[in-house]
Amino acid sequence: MLLAGENSSIYMDVDKDSARDAASVSAFAETIFNYLQTEELRCQPLSSTFLSACTEISPRMRYILVNWLVQVHQSYKLQPETLYLCIAIMDRYLQKCGSGITKDLFQLVGITALFIASKFEEMYPPDIGDFSSITDNTYTKRDIRTCEQLILQSLDFYLSIPSPIVFLRRISRALEADRRMHNLSKYFLELTIQEYDLAYLPGNLKAVVAACLSLAVCAHSDKIDDVWNEKLAYISGYSIDDVRGPVRILAKAVYRQNSPSKYRVGYYSVLFS
Fold first, then answer.
1. d(CA 273, CA 270)
2. Among the three residues 154, 177, 210, which one is the final residue of a domain in this structure?
3. What is the CA radius of gyration of the chain?
4. Which of these three, 131, 154, 177, is where a domain ends?
5. What is the rounded distance in angstroms from the CA atom of residue 36 to the CA atom of residue 3?
6. Cα-to-chain-centroid distance, residue 246
7. pLDDT tens, 12-50?
């Protein structure tokens, strides 16, 4: 992988349209994203078999838990960054301490990861009691606090994990994506954290894979080569060979979605309106 723009034959000023927006810090945006690309490869990266240490937790169980966490996230109307940080925290904890996590404690780990992420990302996070009650009081507030301490200690309190949605927004801006395409990309991105074979990928790669598949769908093309372009290569730092396999896995995951679940209805209302 290259940093965005390295050895590219084109130069893109992705932030020119936001130059007058002080909050966008457009003068430093490319430097910031280059830093994020480097940081995500350094911050406790996941292996492709990060569940191998878990004697009682299977990829299928993880799939079900992530599904449920997305529904909880949606019910509390939390920010997208909160969801992605939640899954990143949970997966990294499973990789480091999975051998000690039983089936009975798996949901506790998931809801605690969401509790931690919401405190990190949200201006007004839900109360700890809300997280306890949404498990039908299977876990008490004390249980969640104890689990929170264990997770944070195992991760050395490191929570500044670059979010895939941040990379996707920049990619969509570079591609000048309309609302329809961006929402489709967000839907695909959400599937990447659910699929075990994609969950370990760096956030930037997840984002470019989601955008690439969205481009193909919008172009009614079944070939990645037809939609891959220098913009994607420049902004992400990846080559077409880096995304072929993941796009294929993601396409199969999309195909398996027989109908949109209730927490994705927002995306579908835009896509098919």
1. 5
2. 154
3. 19
4. 154
5. 10
6. 14
7. 556 555 555 555 555 666 777 776 777 777 776 888 999
Closest to 236 in 3D by CA, of 204, 200, 270: 204
Q: Which residues of 65-81 are buried (b: 16+ CB within 10 A; e: fewer)?
A: bbebbbebbbebebbbb
C-beta separation of 199 from 87 below 8 A? yes
Q: Determine whether 82 is exposed, middle or buried from the number of CB atoms within 10 Å of its CB (0-12, 13-18, 19+).
A: buried
Query: Residue 258 and residue 236: Cα distance in Å, rounded?
Result: 31
Q: Provide CB contacts within 8 A for 34, sequence distance 6+.
A: 3, 4, 5
182 and 218 both lie in a single domain: yes
CA distance 158 to 85: 11
> 213-249, pLDDT tens digit by residue?
999 999 888 888 889 988 888 888 899 999 999 999 9
Residues 113 and 172 in one domain: no
The reported pTM is 0.85
Question: Is residue 129's pLDDT more than 50?
Answer: yes
In this structure, the number of other CB atoms found within 10 A of the CB of residue 109 comes to: 21
Looking up residue 111, the CATH number of its domain turns out to be 1.10.472.10
Domain around 168? 164-271
pLDDT digits (tens, 9 = 90+) for 144-188: 999 999 999 999 998 988 899 999 998 998 888 899 999 999 999
Where does the chain have alpha helices with state H?
Answer: 29-42, 59-75, 80-97, 103-121, 128-133, 141-154, 164-175, 179-194, 196-199, 203-218, 224-227, 230-236, 240-256, 265-271
Q: How many domains does one find in the chain?
A: 2
What lies within 8 Å, CB to CB, of 218 at 6+ separation is 180, 181, 184
